[in-house]
Each structure stands twice: as C-alpha cells, then as structure tokens.
Amino acid sequence: MASTSFVLFAAFVGLTAAQYEGWEPTQVSAAMCYWEAPRAAVIRDTLWLDGGDLTWTQKMSNGENELSSRNNPLGLMYSFNFSKPFDTKTNLTTLIGTTSKAPGGAGLVGSYSPNMIDGALLYNDAEFYLYGGTLLAEIKGTEAPDADKVVFHREYQYGVEKPGFQEGTDRQSFPGGITQFVAHGAAVSAPSENKAWYIGGMRSPIWGEIYKIYQNDTHIANSTSSTLITLDMTKQLSETFSNETLQVTPRANPSAVWVPVGEKGILVMVGGVTFPEFTTNGLRTSANSQDSEKDSPEFMKTIDIYDIAGKQWYQQKTENGPGALTRGCAVLATAQDRSSFNLYYYGGYTGVDATSGFSDAVWVLSMPSFQWIKLNDGTDNHARAGHQCVMPYPDQMIVVGGYAAMAGDGNPPCVPNFFHTFNVSSGEWQDSYSPSKWSNYTVPTAVQSKIGGNAQGSATATTPVVSGWADPSLSAVFAAEYTTKINTWYPYTEAKETDRPIVDDPGNGNNGGGGGTPKWVAPVLGVVLGLVFITGILVGFCLWRRRKVLRRGNGTATATDDNGSRIISWIRGQPSEPAKAPTVTTEETPSTLDMAEVRTPPPAPAASPAPVVAHEMADDHIAELPDTSPRAELHGVGLTPVEIINKHTHFGTGNGSNPGTTHQSSYYASVSSNENASSLSRSSGVLGFQTRAQSPEPGPPSPPVSHSTPAGRHDSDVSGLSDNETRHLRHISQATVSSASSGGEQEVSGAQQGARGVPTTVPEMPTPGIPETPTPGHPSPLSPPTGASDGEDYISARMLPVSPAGTGTLRRSMFHESEDDLGSKK
C-alpha cells in the first residue's frame, strides 16, 4: 500500500511540471487564468508569492478549454526574480520558480502549512513569515493547521554569524494571545526596521479556523478583528510576535504602505469595506450592503496613520478620493528630495457585489498635502481585484494576478496581462518589463499640478490642503527626517531566457503555460544546420585540394610531364646569389682510368665577403678544343617524384635533426670514356631542405683506393696520354672538376643546419692518391643546387666570388698547363 501511494504521488508530481499541479493525460497546454488573493513578499531581488486561489485554463487535445484549481496540495511557493524580462505574451511558467513548504522540502504538505487564501507574507530583506488567511473548504479526514504555530522561510542570514544557520522552511510557536486564524487584513513590511505588521481584518465568531466555504457560519470570517499584529525580526532566530488593540475602525482588505518619515517611519492605511461579499460563505453578495456602502467610502476620505516610534494613531482628512474600494493594492513612490511621498492605489472593487464595481484606475494620494489625484482611468476589461503590487524599481510597479467581475453564477473570466507593469513616473501602462530599463522616480505632471515643484521634487504644498494638520504632533512626525539606511538591491542583471516553451493563451489574455513546441527549437536548429552545412563545404574543399595535390605528385602524369617537372625543380634549386663556379669537363681521347675525385675541404670560418676574382686564361695563350668534342649535357636519370617531394617541398620526410631517408647518390664529375661527354650525377639537386650552415662535418679520411673500378663508373684512358698532352688538358681546365661524397645518411645537428635544411657542403669520400689538403689556388668543386632561396636559371647562374688562396672553400683547379705543354718555346 505504501509503495502504491508513493508511485501515485511521484506520477502526480511529474504531471505538475508545467502547470505546477493537476496536469491531465489529454491536456496539451495550460495558462494561468486568475489568481484570487495571493500574498506577496519582496526579498532583495526576488518576488515571493504564496497561497491564493490559482486557477488554470487547460487546453485539451479535443480543442476544449477547462478550468482547473487543485488548491496547491504540494504546498508550493512561487518566486519571480526581477532579472527576468517579460511582456504581455510571455509564458509565465518560464518566469516562476517553485519551492515546497512541506517538511523536508517535498511531498504533500497536509496540515503543516495548507494553502491559504488571503493572509500575508511579513518580511524583511532575508526572510518572511506566512501569517493568516482563509482555508478554501473543509476536507473530510484532514485536520486544520495549528492555531498557535506559524511557518517561516529563511533565505539569508543577518546579524551575528550563525554557524548552524540553515535556509529553508520551518515553524515556530506564537506567544499567548496570538492566533493565525485572521484574514483580510492589511499587510505592510519595513525591511530597514526589520519589522512587519498585519492590521485588522476579519475572523470567525469563535476565533477558530476559517474557511471560504463552510457548512455553517461558525468558521466563516464574518467578524472584524481589532488586532494590530507586529512581527519584530531585529534578531534573527529570536523573532517575536506581539499584539495590540487596533485604535481605528477595523475592516476587510484595506491597503497600507510604510512611509520613511519620523524616527522609525509611519504606516498609512487606505480603503477597505465593512461588509464584504467574499465573507458570506459563497453567496457573492454583501450581508449588509447598505451599511457597507455608507461606511466604506469614509476609509478613502479619512486616512489612518500610525507612528511606529510613538505607537500613536492619527487621522488626516482629504477629499475627492476614489470612493469605497477593497482588495486593491498600494505602493509608495518618494520624490528624490523627499518633499513629497506619493501613495499609488490600483484596482479593487466596491466589495458588495462580485459581478460589478471593479476598477482599473490608478490613484495617487500625495503626502503631506494629502490630495487625491486620478492618474490613469484604465479600461473596464482590464479591471481586477484581489491582486498584488510590488516595485522592482523606483519608477515601476508590477501587478500580479487578481480576478475580474463574475458573470452570473459561473467562474470569473481570465484576467488579461497576468503580469503587467505600470510606470509610476509617466502614469502609463507598459507592454513589457526589462531589468535593463529603469530610472529614478520623477513626480508625474498631473501630481505636480496639485502639489507644485518639479519632477525631482521641490513640492510647495507641504501641509494638508483640506483642513490643515489634524494634530500638530503629526506635523512634527512628517517634519522629522528618517535617517536609517534603506537598502536597495537594484539594478538587476538581465537573465537569459529559460528553455520552457511559450504557448499562446487559449482564452483571454496571454498568460502562458506549458506544452507545444519550444520557441528555442527553430533558432537552435537553424544554427546547428548552418554549422553542419558550412563544415561540409570546408571538409569537401580540403579533400578536393588534397586530392589535387596528390595527383600532381603521384606518378600518374606522363613521362614528359615528369621530366619537365624534374628539370624545373632542379633549376629552381639554383641559388639566387653567386655560389660556385660552373664545372666544365672535356676529353679528347678515350681514357682508361677515372679522373681522381677532389675532396671538398671543411668550410672556412665566417669572414667578410671576398672580392670577386675572375679566372681567365692569359691573353698570350691559345687554347681550343678539337672539332670532335661532343656537347656537354646532363647525365643520368632526372629526379624521381619521391626525391622532388623530399628535397623541394615541406612534405619531405626529413627534418632538422633527421634528414630525409632518401639516399643521395655519389656526385661525380668525370670524363666518361664510354660517352665522350661531360657528366653530372642525376642526384645533383638539392639535398633535402638543408642550408649551408647545416652541412655535416667532413667524414674521416677515406681508406686507400681500391684497384677495382667503382660500380657504375668507366675506366679512364688519361694514363695512356703523354705528359705533354696531360699537362695540356690540365691547362685547358680552368673551371672546376668536382666530386661528391657518397650519398649515405648522415646525422646533422641543429647547429650545423640553416633555415631550410640545405647542407653547406656536400660530404665526400677522399680519393686515394690525391692529397686531402688542397693546393693553393685550387678551385672549389661544383655544389649541387640548393633550396635555400629561389635560384636563377641554369644558363645565367653567376660566378661565385673567389676568396684568396687558402682562405676559403673556393679553389682553382688542380690542373695546370705550362707554355711547354702548348708547344711554345721560350
């Protein structure tokens, strides 16, 4: 049985998510219809609402609308933070939060703190007490709440630090002589004084629990209460209630405000009626309408004033007021120089008939001149009673809830604009509320015309206009300045919109509710789809570009295109500045032995640029080639795509510390006996991405030359020539004959590399029989093209500057001819 009850309760809680209570299986949306007599408190930046008769309009799946009121079985309190903007079409369920009063913060509230219509929330800046009110009806099997206990809710601590402080809801007991079974009084709080009051009201004839509808009149609030309940919250955790006999006429639902004048301020009470229709056990007509209509207008003509410090009541006459009104609301706006204090009274009705007499007018009672000014007439279809008014900013009043005139025996119609904002400076209704839009209070023009002065104050009417001060002591109270600090909690930072759905009001007005498609779906979906589309375009472009790059280097092009690409790559590897002298090798007759390789010496220390020295043959010598000399051309196969990638692009596998894995072949400049042509190795391009500064250190001396011929090379027949012919050939070769090292992998440190990874010199193997130390004037060997910078074309490459003999890497050829070799005679 217990588990079944728990399941049913959990299901019920789940159904109340959007409507708060009573969500039906076939329901598609809900809207707040009317809210009779809720009670309100403002704790810093938050409006708290509790109790009252909250009725919803339920829109069903068949298109019909139904009214629903469940009397808040979960004991929920509602909160609205002033940082949330809204307008007349806002779904109010996105604005309002809920907090349970039940023990432990969840579950059915039962008799612990049942739903009360009317009553009050008495508050300061940190906590509030739930006092008084009327039960809706007696429910068989349920108990009434305790008369001598009151529920409170704490949000913040104040005063001395309290290590054991806990926020939340709890109860405490009243002292003797005080009961919570009082309703329809005037509630007013003064946070700067840490005090609150509940003035007058109605009670049952036996001082017991009171109901709105009961089987007899013994538990109906049909008797006036001459009580002045004071709550002192000066010391938190030690709050106290006290009761005094009311010295003015008690009545039902007057409105009161606290005014900051005198030592501790004063209470000003207006309106109320003596025989209201809402205390007649559901009859909806006054039990004594004649006396009520006679007596009640006086409460707007004679203003009741209570001096808190002196505990003294005063009455001050006025005229041209709104007439008899009850269940309206009142707020106070103070001129910037405190020359006038303006009480705003909105709405209400005559209280003798539930079907007529409802007001939408806004009235101003300006003090200390005590003059009534009608600021706004309003409209009949916007009129209401049983609502609440609060001021989030000095220039704005928010109206919450209420109910309209009933039509016959049915329920009242839904009130339009369940939350509505009135600008007390301009005297006009606003279609929206925004926490970022506010200003200091300015006295309306209509009020200035009565009291003088300007928008900031400077009122000239500083005494009651009708009859002067009724009591000189009251004049002294108004003349005394209130010096206690009044805390302000505005402005408020605007909160972002919540994710609750917005649904148009199915009935009158736009009161919001749950159900339907959330309005954030469309913009969020649009953003997501847009990002997906843009991402798809970017990914497609990247894939297309990658495919295009791979196609250019994957070997699928024709052989002609490959060869052209290799030649262009080799040409672009030429340095843009003079590098080394070009190499010219010639031969006249076949040779049987290889030309000896010349090892490149280590780089010389950095020095100032050397002057350019041109190496030419003397003008008195004749040197020519036989007509059978073949044309010089490149030898071997061009660079492969892999070598191009490794050497000329950033896709190469080499890096600063680990050169590419593609092996470099040995570089030879030899006279080929088979081809009778000058030749260069096919790998005479750039070595990866290394600079001259990144050149590897010279290797160890080569071992003695072997008698075997290196693979891939031809024997030279130079040894078969005569000495004169050999010297003749050497004299002709003023250009360099270079040799390169074997192209094995070598580690190159970061300090030995340049910006683009091109070695400064080409490592080589020393050739046996040739001295490792170059002879003076020896020309430098031909270096392969590099990628250190954009090179010139192959034909126009310039000559390198030549350093003085023995001071640089540029050396003249080893070969030397004398005049004897040329056949000259001395």
From TrEMBL:
Polar residues bias (residue ranges): 735-752
Basic and acidic residues: compositionally biased ranges: 814-826
Native source organism of the sequence: Colletotrichum siamense (Anthracnose fungus)
Annotated SUPFAM superfamilies: Kelch motif (SSF117281)
Keywords: Kelch repeat, Membrane, Repeat, Signal, Transmembrane, Transmembrane helix
Transmembrane segments: 520-544
Residue spans of biased composition, Pro residues class: 765-784
Superkingdom assignment: Eukaryota
Disordered, as annotated region: 648-670, 690-722, 735-826
Protein name: Kelch repeat-containing protein
UniProt keyword Transmembrane, yes or no: yes
Extent of the signal sequence: 1-18
Coiled-coil region(s): none
InterPro entries, A to Z: Kelch-typ_b-propeller
